Amino acid sequence: MDFWIDVIINVIFAILSVLLLLLVVAYSTLLERKLLGDFQLRIGPNRAGPFGIWQPIADGLKAFFKEDVIPEKADKIVFVLAPMVSFITAVGIIAIIPFADSITIFGRHVKLIVSDIDISILYVFALAALGSYGCLLGGYSSYNKYSIFGAMRTSALLISYEIPFVLLIMSIVLVNGTLSFSGIVEAQSHLWNIVREPVAFFLAIVCALAEINRTPFDMPETESELACGFNVEYSSMKFSMFFMAEYAHLFTISAILTTLFLGGWKGPLLPPIVWFLLKTFAFMFFFIWERATYPRFRIDQIMHFGWKVLLPLSLANLLVTAIVMAIIG
Amino acid sequence: MDVIIFFMAVVFAMGSAIAIICVKNPIHSALWMVSTLFCTAVIYLLLGFDFLAAIQVIVYAGAIMMLIVYVIMLTSIEEEIKKRYRLRLFQIVGIFFVIIFFIQAVKYGMVHLTGWEGFDWKSIPERFGSVNYIAYKLFTKFVLPFEVVSILLLAGIAGAVYLAKKEKNKGE
Amino acid sequence: MTPSLNTYLGSYLGIVVVLIMGVLLAVIMIGASHILGPRRKNPLKDMPYESGLPTVGATWAPFDVKYYIVALLFLLFDLECVYMYPWAVYFKKLGVFGLIEMFIFIFILLVGFVYVWKKGALQWE
To answer: Given A82, A87, B33, B83, which is the most exposed site by the fewest CB atoms within 10 A?
Structure first.
């Protein structure tokens, strides 16, 4: 009996966290537009409700009622599958993020993490690996030169920056000795990883920008060169799903960086969930801010930077960490 | 519950494996292969190898299949679709029986010839598929194979560069 | 033994629920927009969009071999990283011995990386 109550609580919590993620996704689009407006001395959306508060809902409803164009020569099954792959793999990451400490409801401990598995980090990379098929297939199935170019460039970018990202996170694994997110948060009780691994922190932010395709690495959206990149043929809700996947990544990667480097939900005075959200939204603010600041790199610059600068640096960081760990013991 | 998931994973894995050789478009074949590998990962997970399951998805589905999709996209898909050989139904059925026979033979060999019959399954430690246990084995008992792997990877890198350079010279 | 969610397989329940939710939402959203949206077929609309111009040349331009090199290098370095995960997790118990093991491993691969660099395979023209 107790077991089934636990199961029901876990299922409800899982469903709630997905719905909350969708809410965050909807409102992070508004946040981004408002902040970009401020950075560029504009007002931003202000028509739908006070401060444009209904804007995301209006956008979402609009997408439902738009024509769903599937090009004549498209590979139709894959064309429909691609946005689904992007969306599902982006949403799936929410399952292993530790939101807060365990809380007590009706006299039983409930962990505020949907799935407390041993291999959280590997799970994230596995989903990222499957997610990179989303844009590649989207580009392939559209039967459009620009889509195919955009897709190839995006996936080349993704795989090039994944290696340094893995190596940087490896140094965190090395320091904390575990692959599970709750274990990593626990290991940061006294000292945050940003103090132990400052170099990894800054380099990981750069890799994270590339992994979620944001400026200066926004290869999918090279409007000036490739019309719109891999999703140029997409319309209606399918386009929105690529868009939602992108903003879901914005939130999840912020949450992952918070967990890995800033001690997750740990913090004095305020309740854990508040600390978690504060740190996560600080990252999101930063990611939006830098979009308004930097221009876009060219594809050759991006590839050179990834393989010839980031990869050696992250490998060196890992080796230095290992040596220091061996000396300290 | 885990038995139901196991059989679902097995059926999906076999279904997608058959689809790999039956569909006309090479990209679709590659996608079915990703699906097969994913189902295999689920089976690993059910057996207690969480690390191996994740690696299965990251390396096979993420890296190797990505490479294969790239290679398919480097060739001309349209011509490929026209001349691609597809298996007929009776051929598939034939292959299916050959495979069943093969599996039975291997099973017989493994059980009766290697002494697995009297194997004490209880001697396997709990969570033997966990990262810690794999690391413990890999870096104590199997150090030499581990180092040999790096030489294998080195050979792979050298081969990749050699092939690519050859392609490039031909193109010029 | 009473069943519990704090077991190995029990901890994966949440992931299964989240992924099923993801699939359901994706199907609902695509299905709903397919039903709700208008459909006005038009031969020009169904052509590839290239900012209003008709397509010139073949859509499947053969790709440069450099993409292939990047994918191959990614595969090899990904394999290298796979061996590092158990090492990193177990490092505290291995100590200096583990350090030496991994240094030999990485050194051999670094030789490969330098070779690739010197051969100019990382050059993206």
So the answer is: B83
> Structural domain tally of chain B?
1
**CA C40 to chain centroid:** 37
Are residues B27 and A75, on separate chains, in Cβ contact within 8 Å?
yes
Which residues on neighbouring strands pair with residue A105, listed in sequence order? Answer: A108
Position A254 scores a pLDDT of 93
Q: C55 to chain A, minimum CA–CA distance in Å?
A: 8
Number of other residues whose CB lies within 10 A of the CB of residue C1: 4
Lowest mean pLDDT among A227-236, C4-13, C107-116: A227-236
Specify if B122 maps to a domain.
no
The answer to whether residue C115 neighbours chain A at the CB level (below 8 Å) is no
In this prediction the ipTM stands at 0.88
Its sign, for the CA torsion A293, A298, A301, A302, is: positive
| Tens digits of residue pLDDT in C22-59 | 999 999 988 888 888 787 777 766 677 666 666 666 66
Task: Indicate the range of A248-262, B61-75, B154-168 predicted with least confidence.
Answer: B154-168
Question: What one-character-per-residue DSSP string does A61-116 give?
Answer: HHHHTS-----TTS-HHHHHHHHHHHHHHHHHGGGG---SS-EEETTEEE-SSS--
Residue B112 placed within a domain: no
Residue in A94, A163, A178 closest to C18 by CB: A94
Can you state the angle between helices A311-328 and A145-176, rounded to 10 degrees?
A: 10
Judged by CB atoms closer than 8 Å, whether chains meet at B78 and C60 is answered as yes
- Domain positions in chain A: 2-328
Q: Specify the length of chain C in residues.
A: 125
CATH number at residue B16: 1.20.120.1200
Q: Which two tokens stand for residue B128?
A: 């033997």
In a domain, B101, yes or no: no
Q: Is C37 exposed, middle or buried (0-12, 13-18, 19+ CB in 10 A)?
A: middle
The pLDDT value recorded for residue C19 is 93
For the segment(s) C10-119, the CATH number from 3.20.20.70, 2.40.160.10, 3.30.43.20, 1.20.58.1610 is 1.20.58.1610
